[in-house]
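User: I'll paste a sequence; please echo it back and then give the predicted structure.

Assistant: Echoing your sequence first, then the prediction.
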Amino acid sequence: MNSKATLNRPKQVPSCASCAKQGRGPFCGLPSDSLTGLDRAKSFGTYPRGQILFQAGSKATGVHCLNAGLVKLTRVGLGGKEQILRLAGPGDLLGHRAVLGERPHDHDAEAMTDVEVCYLPADVISPLVSSAPPLLRSLVKKLVEETSEVEGRLVERAQQRAEERLASFLLRLCGPGDGTARVELPLSRQELADYLGAAPETIIRALAHLAKRKLIRLDGRFVEVPDRSKLTDATDSSAA
């Protein structure tokens, strides 16, 4: 979505230097000449309540710095169920994770109230990031990947039954593809329960039930998946 096309131009544009004095935004530590450059490059406007700032899967073309209002960040789980990740308020940056990670957005951003937003194109942010040491840039990308993975697991935990979460975990261990796979469980039953957010006895019952349905075969610490496509169906809440 083209953010600039949906912005309503306000009467007064806030200064990045003023925000920096209040300690409200992520660019507060930049020198005054850099803040002046951001002021020249940004666009500023308002979104009405209900406006989508960006959607999961869309290309990250820039970042939104929220000046006023609230924005809901969500992911859509299985069956199209929406899961709220967090509510962003004044001073929060939106879309930066995708820009820094050089990847599409992995969540939606929707205005919950009328909001005021400073929009900075990615090509304005990129030089600031490029000036950082290569190791730091690599670590930032890694952090983006890990954060996205953790959020995905939180959505699973909130929306899936223990058996479905277990099936998803086993599929991740198996890796991509269809057909048969055999993997060793790297965690004890207690550790697996902690990781999946369930009681150990629940995980034991879930393993037994998946085996009874012939979706897996248990052999000590090893699990064989005869058909990964059938196990995939078990991760869908709508599956029988």
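The two ends are 37 Å apart (CA to CA). The longest strand covers residues 62-68.
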